[in-house]
Amino acid sequence: MDQRIPGQSPGVTPVSVHFVNNVLAAAASYIEEDPEAAREVLAELGAFLSHRLRGPRTVSPAEELDHIGVYLRLEQARFPGRIEVELPAVSDLPSPRVGAGDVQAPVSEALSRWMAQHTGHVRVALRARGDAVDLQLDRPDAPGEAGERLRIPWGVATAGSVA
Amino acid sequence: MTSGLAILAVDDEPRALTDIKRLLETSASVERVATATSAKEALVYLSGGRYDALFLDVAMPEIEGMALARLLRRFADPPAVVFLTGHPDAAVEAFEVQALDFLVKPVTRERLESALTRVEQHVRGNEAAKAAPPGEATDNAAAGPDVVAVDNPKGGGKRLVRLETISFAQANGDYARIVCEDGRFLLRTPLSQLEKDWAATGFARVHRAYLVNLKHAVELRAQLNGTAVLIMRDDTEIPVARRNVAALRRRLHA
Predict the structure, then answer these.
(1) Which among A3, A20, A80 has CB closest to B14?
(2) How many percent of chain B have pLDDT more than 70?
(3) Nearest CA to B35 among B59, B58, B19, B11?
(4) pTM over 0.95
(5) Which of B22, B61, B105 sits opposite A21 (nearest CB)?
(6) For A30, which of B15, B62, B88 is closest by C-beta distance?
(7) Does the complex come out with an ipTM higher than 0.90?
(8) Mutation test of the interface with chain B: which of A21, A79, A108, choosing the one with the most B Cβ atoms within 10 A?
(9) Shortest CA distance from A41: residue in chain B
(10) Which of A69, A160, B87, B180 gets the highest tally of CB atoms within 10 A of its CB?
């Protein structure tokens, strides 16, 4: 079902048209009642697309983590009040280079899957390790309930992952 | 339709729902807008009130929009469905469930008004069909869906066929065989459902096994036993049941 923006270079983790369209719809909804929020959403979307549409390139883990932060703020704009985010401190990050979007894409895939299967709040927590990022999704209002965990290696391309 | 449209907008994304609600509320053709954030909530609204159309998000948790649309088709008098989505590729599936229109988010004002015009025409068509004598559908300009997604025998998948190009549909169990300018296709919908869906677009049930596009008919030939044969543009002969002959003759001569 998902569709990627055409014309993206080979080797670049694709961006989902579905995600972009829904972020634009969220931005449109803010225009009248909160123009500043609308401008922020559009600025964040611009930053997100800039990271991904500049062709094949590697970035530092800090840049990729910043990109994930942008992505999660866009998801929070789509679903206000539903998503809590915990990101690791930049000082915790290792040094290898990663493909732009290579870590964000599986985070997005996991969160989209979660949102499709659950209603209510979700906590998205990322922990940086030397060789990977650990993603945990759970419901903050259901302590003790098993959430979803995913280990995403730094620098391993995730072909087929989207936005 | 004596006043403006009553619309139920359904989307699990609250901001997208706010956006479509505002657009709908500021349209001259809309009188009332309700919103629901899930298919379950939408069903509660539908059980408690009458809506002319649902503006329905495709991707939602628990019950997806497409599943809700399929469920609505079992209603005796279902509201029209206009899909809202960020997935442009969902269009074919949307037409398969006889959606009236398909809008990609964020929706432009012009595109929304075009969808609302189709909803108005659909509502008028239904009202005219209800007012017409039994067995005598109307040729009101009001339109239902003007495209249908059929099974494509070449390579699988779906193929979009314009209703105006369809000559007739023939019952085939729970399926219908569609005969159109581009060939013959199978549609996973019973003829009885197509009769309802296409009533406002010039189709008439002339026989238990045949639903005919009267715009493709060129001659009604009476038979000695009281039945008739309808001759189509391509010389195909469609049997007309005895009980349908008089109504069909009146309709063709109208």
Answers:
(1) A80
(2) 87
(3) B11
(4) no
(5) B105
(6) B15
(7) no
(8) A21
(9) B15
(10) B87
Band (B148; pLDDT cuts 50, 70, 90): confident
Tell me the per-residue pLDDT of A78-118, one tens digit each, with 9 for 90 and over: 999 999 999 988 776 777 788 889 899 999 999 999 998 88
Distance, in angstroms, between B25 CA and closest chain A CA? 13
What's the order of all strands across the beta sheet hosting B237-240?
A: B217-222, B228-232, B237-240
Among A32, A101, A95, which residue's Cα sits nearest to residue A66? A101
Q: Which fold does the domain B5-131 belong to in CATH?
A: Rossmann fold (3.40.50)
Q: What is the pLDDT of residue B23?
A: 95
User: What confidence tens digit (pLDDT) does each residue in A42-86 have?
Assistant: 999 999 999 988 878 889 888 999 999 999 999 999 999 999 999
- pLDDT for A159 equals 36
Look at the alpha carbons of A74, A75, A78, A81 in this order and tell me if their dihedral is positive or negative.
Answer: negative
Whether residue B42 has pLDDT greater than 70: yes
pLDDT level of residue B139 (50, 70, 90 thresholds)? very low
- Residue tagged 């779906």 (tokens): B158
Q: Does domain B147-253 have CATH number 2.40.50.1020?
A: yes
| Residue spans per domain, chain A | 17-153
On chain A, the residues whose CB falls within 8 A of the CB of B106 are 21, 24-25, 27-28
Chain CA centroid to CA A45, Å: 11
Pairing of the two strands B30-36 and B5-10? parallel
Residues A68 and A126: beta-carbon distance below 8 Å:
yes
Tokens linked to B130: 């209800």
CB contacts < 8 A, A to B, total 72
User: CB distance B62–A20 less than 8 Å?
Assistant: no
pLDDT reported for residue B126: 77
The structure tokens 């300018």 sit at B181
Q: In chain B, where are the structural domains located?
A: 5-131, 147-253
What would the DSSP string read from start to end of A54-69?
S-S-EE-HHHHHHHHH
pLDDT at B150: 77
The CA distance from A26 to the nearest CA of chain B, in Å, is 5
Q: Which chain A residue's Cα is nearest to B92?
A: A1
